[in-house]
Amino acid sequence: MTARMYYDADVDPTALAGQTGAVIGYGSQGHAHAQNLRDSGVEVIVGLAKGSKSRALAADAGFRVENVAAAVRAADVVVLLVPDTAQKAVYDAEIAPNLRDGQLLMFAHGFNIRFGRVQPPPSIDVGMVAPKGPGHLLRSVYTAGGGVPALFAVEQDASGTARARVLAYARALGATRAGVLETTFAEETETDLFGEQALLCGGVSALVKAAFETLVEAGYQPELAYFETMHELKLIVDLMYRGGLNFMRFSVSDTAEYGDYVSGPRVTEGAKAAMKDVLADIQSGAFAQRWIAVQEAGGDEFRQLRGRDREHQIEQVGAALRAQMPFLNPVVVREGEAQAAASAPAVATGSPK
Ligand code: NAD
Ligand code: MG
Predict the structure, then answer these.
(1) Which atom of ligand 1 is nearest to the CA of 138?
(2) Ligand nearest to the CA of 198
(3) Rounded CA gap, 74 and 67, in Å?
(4) Using CB atoms within 10 A as the burial measure, which of 64, 147, 230, 280 is most buried?
């Protein structure tokens, strides 16, 4: 089965002509949606809480900034880009009471619809454009003339224009320059959570740490172990990004390629069964329930886990080595804030949520 891809030429941008977008939240995704939409000719209002620290940023970028309720009332399209764990509260208090028939409520990730946290009335359109990349790239790639690929979905079509408007939204973000494909809120949410847990964030981090620890515990130098297990990973991933596993294997030595075939599967023995368990917990809602409960209890477990890994030896060793490589544009993360240590533009910060 081959998915149908949609590109610029397949999408009518006039489906959003004369419409106003309210971008709620001005973080990683919010700033990129607001700026790309505006540059594509869509009128944008940024909706933020009264005391929000993002207000100054959005105003400096030239946006009209309103309270969330006022932004929703003034808009035809409302896109909810506050953190997933905050969406229910913002939706219930500020958005739901101000919705009117025929408005389009947009998401960049299906979590709150898939797990029933946000329940829009049947009289509005509900859609999603989920960029397959961090918000800062969504903006920088657009400015450079390209686009970040995305998934789109229509959950409700009350107006009869939902699909056309969602596609036009994807085009205004620049996503149809790279290609977008249709999905459902359930498919996007489940595959997104699975990807970040089993592979992109969780699986890769666990493999890197395990390989680093194996070398250090065997008496090898930690600095060498860092270069081998974390620094080189990017070089390998860049090859895969450009030409798949085939190009990576074409570029590495025959010895590396042979070792890949015979030892890779030894390292991941049992991994696929574990991945199936991870997927089952996502599909059943067990993961979502656990994560929501942690947040509602104040987030202690989350902070503990974060603190534990932040102190890992690979992070200490890596920070010192990266500081000597300013051409990498190294970033130092403290208390949840990312700060570019070098002055080069920070285009690739943010997480692949
Ligand atoms: P974020 O953490 O960058 O923050 C969003 C913004 O929301 C903040 O900057 C602030 O302006 C506002 N905000 C924060 N807490 C709030 C609160 N309690 N109440 C009201 N407003 C608050 O968020 P994000 O990573 O851009 O995520 C937004 C949506 O985009 C989520 O649905 C996420 O899953 C999705 N998404 C994110 C990425 C990514 O690259 N980060 C990629 C694809 C999809
Ligand atoms: Mg993702």
Answers:
(1) 40
(2) 2
(3) 11
(4) 147
Using a 6 Å CB cutoff, which residues line ligand 1?
A: 25-30, 48-49, 52, 54, 81-84, 86, 90, 108-109, 130-131, 134-135, 350-351, 353
Prediction pTM value: 0.89
Tokens representing 57?
Answer: 């940023």
DSSP string, 97-161: GG--TT-EEEESS-HHHHTTS----TTSEEEEEEESS-HHHHHHHHHTT----EEEEEEE-SSS-
Provide the 10 A C-beta neighbour count for residue 35.
22
Q: Which of the residues are catalytic? A: 109
CA nearest to 15, candidates 120, 148, 163:
163
| Sign, CA torsion 232/330/36/21 | positive
Low-confidence ranges of the chain (pLDDT < 50): 339-353
The sign one gets for the Cα dihedral 253, 259, 261, 267 is negative
Measured distance CA(138)–CA(131) in Å, rounded: 7
Tell me: the pLDDT tens digits for 181-219?
A: 999 999 999 999 999 999 999 999 999 999 999 999 999
Per the DSSP assignment, residues forming a β-bridge with 156 are: 126
User: What CA–CA distance (Å, rounded) separates 84 from 137?
Assistant: 20
Name residue 160's beta-bridge partners: none
